[in-house]
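User:
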Amino acid sequence: MEQTYLDYPFHLDGRGRTAVTREEDHVRDMIYQVLFTSPGERVNRPDFGCGLKTLLFMPNSDVLAAATQALVKGSLQKWLEREIQVEQVKVEAEESTLTVTVTYVLRSDGSRRTETFQGAA
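Assistant: Predicted structure:
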């Protein structure tokens, strides 16, 4: 039987039960949480996250994109090292939108995945 995980954000499914998801979606949810949680936001883990949301309001530039790329890769490696191996992080800053593309290998089965996350100011 395939293992299931609580879906994020928490919600009920069509049957009125707690929604669950497969591992691939669960890992994507965890990446999302690392990217969009600001350090200090979680009481029991004050250093969790990379604070990507705060960077959305900074002047958009290539320098910001490069710094964000290093920040994101380091945070993912720190918080999700048991689940994924980060291969590449690509950050594009275009007008008021920051697009982060993460390529990683899922450690449980060795499959390579690429996910894109966007934030807008």
